[in-house]
Specification:
The chain is 43% helix and 17% strand. It has four helices and three strands, in the order αβββααα. The chain has a three-stranded antiparallel sheet, with helices on one face. Strand 2 and strand 3 form a beta hairpin. Mean pLDDT is 90; it is low at 106-111. The protein binds zinc ion. Zinc ion is lined by residues 35, 38, 40, 62-63, 65-66, 132.
């Protein structure tokens, strides 16, 4: 199995069996994102505590890339501090080359890998789909800004 096949399997697995799908009741932060180019919609709800994101859930419709990215993202951010989430967001955007240049993140730091999210790097070959992968991350930034 090639790396690309493996990535495709990971994306399809998240698409077919999404993690943390739904909406939290009485969330501390909520944001909606839309990608009209593809018809993707994401609603993200977050529960925050003093440490950072205590829980997260997403709902929405759209292509496999957008939904899988949302599933992977919720899995990656739950239990993380806002600093760690910021770091993760920069890593993700750097991997997708949405952000230019290296943010100076130490790749060898334990626990700092992107995990399943790395499967999305194949998407950057298809610029029109990058917005699909980025959609939940835009909603995340909005939700966190709204929460202050
Ligand atoms: Zn899409």
């Amino acid at each position: 199995m090639s790396v690309e096949d493996l990535y495709r399997e990971v994306i399809l697995d998240h698409y077919r069996n999404p993690r943390h799908r739904g909406e939290l009741s009485d969330p501390d932060a909520r944001a909606e994102g839309q990608n009209p180019l593809c018809g993707d919609e994401i609603t993200l709800t977050l529960r925050l505590d003093a440490e950072g994101v205590a829980d997260a859930a997403f709902s929405g419709t759209g292509c496999s890339i957008s939904q899988a990215s949302a599933s992977m993202m919720t899995e990656a951010i739950i239990g993380k501090s806002l600093g760690q989430i910021n770091d993760l967001t920069h890593r993700f955007k750097a991997m997708m080359t949405i952000e230019e240049g290296d943010s100076g993140v130490d790749e060898s730091r334990p626990g700092s890998t992107l995990g399943d999210l790395e499967a999305l790097q194949g998407v950057r070959k298809f610029p029109v789909r990058i917005k699909c992968a980025d959609l939940p991350w835009v909603a995340l930034q909005e939700a966190l800004e709204e929460a202050g």
